[in-house]
Write a structure and sequence with these properties.
Blueprint lengths: L1 E6 L5 E7 L7 E6 L10 H9 L2 E6 L19 H19 L5 E6 L1 H12 L6 E5 L6 H17 L7 H12 L12 H9 L9 H12 L4 H5 L7 E6 L9 H12 L5 E6 L12 H16 L1
Parallel strand pairs: 3-4, 3-5, 5-6, 6-7, 7-8
Antiparallel strand pairs: 1-2, 2-4
Helix pairs in contact: 2-3, 4-7
Length: 299
């Protein structure tokens, strides 16, 4: 494993992690991590993919991880769209270094919504996509979130912790479970997440404002028409994940891609599984499904 800084379009230094397999490289897998986490939380996934011969790389998104460790949750500008551009430039870098290798793009949670935007704008850069811990977000949720976060920016300031938005999302999700954790039902994994200093912060009102604005643009006819319908999509989530409406809104995303004509779109809803399928009781099934898809796409 190596870590390095990547200079993005606006001069921003983005921290990148690369996991390189021993021997021949079969293909590439790019990871777009979730909100309030970072790339190193995917060490086990990367190790399993390395064992199959795949090179894996992931950035720490703006306002996250080592990229913005001194200002966690905050970054100036249009964080959502700027991060989508970061991801595309990083893809281009690795495609240039390995021009004969296929690439699977994977996004989890917040990273999955970035992925939904990415595949509308950069359809030439990937060969298959995995959208994990996701949903087809309804307009009311994104409208309300945009309104609340915009008011937060106006009255509290863009850098202020988006505490009300957190209550509407993370805290609301946690209340659905007796032990107060929507991430995983495995106690040791929940504790590992809670003790991680790069996972214990509240995102700023500017982050939420830009995120909600990005969500509102995901389901336009113009944007959806730009998705390459010949490239396969796997939708992966837990049946007990509130982000996906306990499977309902995740299935709506799957149905949307079918409706617009994606030729190969599959869905895997893992039973008794919460938000982090790689850290819950059905993790082996999640890894098997994930790696099986990568092998089918890359060959």
């Amino acid at each position: 494993m190596k870590r390095y800084q990547f200079t993005s379009f606006d001069g921003k230094k983005i921290v990148v992690t690369e996991w390189k397999p021993e021997g021949e490289i079969k293909g590439l897998v790019q990871i777009s991590h979730g909100m309030v986490e970072h790339a190193l939380r995917y060490n086990e996934l990367a190790a399993r993919l390395n064992a199959e011969g795949f090179l894996v790389f992931a950035d720490d998104h703006r306002a996250h991880g080592e990229t913005d460790k001194d200002t966690l949750g905050w970054c100036a500008g249009d964080i959502f769209n700027d991060t989508v551009r970061d991801l595309s430039l990083l893809t281009e870098k690795y495609r240039a270094e390995y021009p004969d290798k296929k690439l699977v793009f994977f996004g989890h949670s917040y990273g999955s919504f970035l992925t939904q935007a990415y595949i509308q704008r950069f359809s030439a850069l990937y060969d298959g996509v995995i959208i994990g811990g996701s949903a087809r977000m309804n307009g009311l949720m994104s409208f309300g979130g945009k309104l609340v976060s915009s008011l937060g920016c106006a009255f509290k300031g863009e850098k202020a912790e988006g505490r009300l938005m957190r209550k509407m999302t993370f805290d609301s999700y946690n209340k659905k479970f007796a032990e107060g954790n929507f991430v995983t039902s495995v106690k040791s994994e929940a504790e590992r997440y809670e003790k991680d200093p790069l996972c214990s912060f509240t995102c700023s009102y500017n982050f939420y404002k830009r995120f909600m604005g990005g969500l509102r643009r995901l389901y336009t006819k113009k944007g959806l028409n730009k998705i390459d319908k010949n490239k396969p999509i796997l939708v992966l989530s837990g049946e007990k994940d509130p982000v996906g409406g306990y499977g309902k809104d995740t299935r709506k995303l799957y149905e949307l891609y079918k409706k617009i004509g994606v030729k190969e779109v599959t869905i895997e809803l893992l039973p008794e599984t919460r938000h982090e399928y790689f850290n819950d009781r059905e993790k082996e099934r999640a890894y098997k499904t994930f790696i099986g898809f990568v092998n089918r796409v890359i060959g």
